[in-house]
Amino acid sequence: MYKASLGTSVKLTTFFVIGLLSLLGLMLMSFFFISLLNNEFEKKNIMMPIITLALFAIIYYAFSERILGYELTNEGIKILKKNNSEFIKKESIIEIKPIDYKDIRFSIRTFGIGGIFSLSGSFKNKKYGEMTWYITRKDQLLMIVTSKQQYVISPDESELFLEKTLESLK
After folding, report:
1. DSSP string across 40-79
2. I need a labelling partner for 145 at 20 to 30 A (CA). Which of 26, 65, 97, 98 fits?
3. Is the pLDDT at 91 greater than 80, yes or no?
């Protein structure tokens, strides 16, 4: 398995967003309990714990979708996540190449997670069009071009991963 460690920007984004959402959730729960203790409870106050649960559900979803690594198999490339995995079939791979982050810097996220534990989901830009990202860092990017779509990954040992993948495609 080729690990996918977190880059600096993903670490900072994760720390900031998790801290902010946790603080917001704790504040909402504090206000809820204060309203219960002061006998000032109103029906609308029930939204505070519901919103808190929704915030923690968002955090859990991002955590469960985080990228752990990439695995080369005889059938293709497996993208390992916390709770599941994605698979790119060997037969569908047309090309795999290194790319620079500057080429995808101004991509628009159309669906996915934008920096909490990873950058993953559907993105689009002028140079490459629609892409699916499974990255945790921005400095060692590889693009996998298939017959149907493009994937961007970021294994820690990207040069070795590229070399082994090209060997297995022959």
Report:
1. ---GGGGHHHHHHHHHHHHHHHHHHT-EEEEEE-SSEEEE
2. 65
3. yes
- Tracing tokens 């900072």 back to the chain, one arrives at 12
Write the pLDDT tens digit of every residue in 96-115: 999 999 999 889 999 988 88
pLDDT band at 23 (very low <50, low <70, confident <90, very high): very high
Please say whether the beta carbons of 13 and 138 come within 8 A.
no
